[in-house]
Amino acid sequence: RAHIVGWACTTLCLVSYAAAFSQGASLSACADMMPRHLRVQLHSSNSNYITVHTNMSFYFPGDKVPVTVRSTRDYMGFMLQARKVSNNEIAGTFIFLPPGSKLLTCFEDGDTVTHSDKSLKRNLSFVWKAPDQPIGDIKFFISIVQSYFVYWAKIESAVVAQGGQN
């Protein structure tokens, strides 16, 4: 009898803990983009099935840059950011989001996108707006949560160079 009660308590704790992140990443993940799930297993970003890219190789301040995330497998959660190549700071804001996602404010309004539900996702499109002042070259980074226990952190795009720099 005690064994059943212990199992029930453990199950309820796991479900409630996991459900806490079913509506998006925690602010505690802003800096390192690491999920805060219980006993998660990090997989190498070199052996992932996700690509994050844009059709632009350069941008100018104030430009709107389309960002596409493609996957060969379904996943539940994600966190997407643009970061300066020079110092790894989060930069810009996202102005278009697909269904099942929402804005998160890590350092400035709308600088990060995360999932808003735990529905399965595969291919997503976003639009990022560069700041009006020059910030230098950027890369997009995404962390993907396949399940509550399996994830890939900080998968990166190619560099998107700031146009007009000398």
UniProtKB/TrEMBL annotation:
<keyword id="KW-0732">Signal</keyword>
<feature type="signal peptide">
    <location>
        <begin position="1"/>
        <end position="20"/>
    </location>
</feature>
<feature type="domain" description="Reelin">
    <location>
        <begin position="15"/>
        <end position="166"/>
    </location>
</feature>
<dbReference type="InterPro" id="IPR042307">
    <property type="entry name" value="Reeler_sf"/>
</dbReference>
<protein>
    <submittedName>
        <fullName>RELD1 protein</fullName>
    </submittedName>
</protein>
<dbReference type="Pfam" id="PF02014">
    <property type="entry name" value="Reeler"/>
</dbReference>
<dbReference type="InterPro" id="IPR051237">
    <property type="entry name" value="Ferric-chelate_Red/DefProt"/>
</dbReference>
<dbReference type="GO" id="GO:0016020">
    <property type="term" value="C:membrane"/>
</dbReference>
<dbReference type="InterPro" id="IPR002861">
    <property type="entry name" value="Reeler_dom"/>
</dbReference>
